[in-house]
Amino acid sequence: MFTGLVADLGEVVGVDAGDEGVRLTVRTSLAPEIAEGDSVAVNGVCLTATNIADGAFSADVMNESLRRTSLSEVAAGRSVNLELPLRAHDRLGGHFVQGHVDGVATVRDVREDGFARVVTFDAAPELLRYIVEKGSIAVDGVSLTVSAVDEDSFAVSLIPETLERTTLGTAEPGRPVNLEVDVLAKYVEKLAR
């Protein structure tokens, strides 16, 4: 369980791809806090650390995760949003994020709005049905509030702190992002059937 509050911008320093999946190696200031077997959210995808050495951790990304997330496009030298799992005594500052990506959206538009930046994403109808204005959403693992939604897209407004501390500060049209809709919306839909 995560909160969607990014703890560090890590740098991908290795991508070992094969037919069976990908082993990512990420350099991060969080490495001293990670042990083998720990969960780490990488751009919102819950992965298991398999090796920690020299200020970096490695994690295996199976083909299923590569098909369903934007991690298939991550390359060495790219920044990724990182979060360690929520501990029982931690504050819950974002919202409950599982690290189970529901799908990929694409940045449609980026525009300035005072000191904020509005980013609009194209998303599939099967994801949009769970997205509501002023509801919670995790975009690349970042807990955000939806500022607008229509039949084929949604938007979020990003404050300078989010722009500086996450990969969303470099969002540009065409870039894929991981989405995790609010899990409560999925349970409400199931109960309403």
Automatic annotation (TrEMBL):
Lumazine-binding repeats lie at residues 1-95, 96-192. The keyword Transferase applies. Pfam families: Lum_binding. InterPro entries: ATP_synth_asu-like_sf, Lumazine-bd, Lumazine-bd_dom, Riboflavin_synthase-like_b-brl. It comes from the Bacteria. Transmembrane segments: none annotated. Keywords: Repeat, Transferase. Residues 1-95, 96-192 form the Lumazine-binding domain. Its EC number is 2.5.1.9. One of its GO terms (molecular function) is riboflavin synthase activity. This is Riboflavin synthase. It comes from Solirubrobacter deserti.
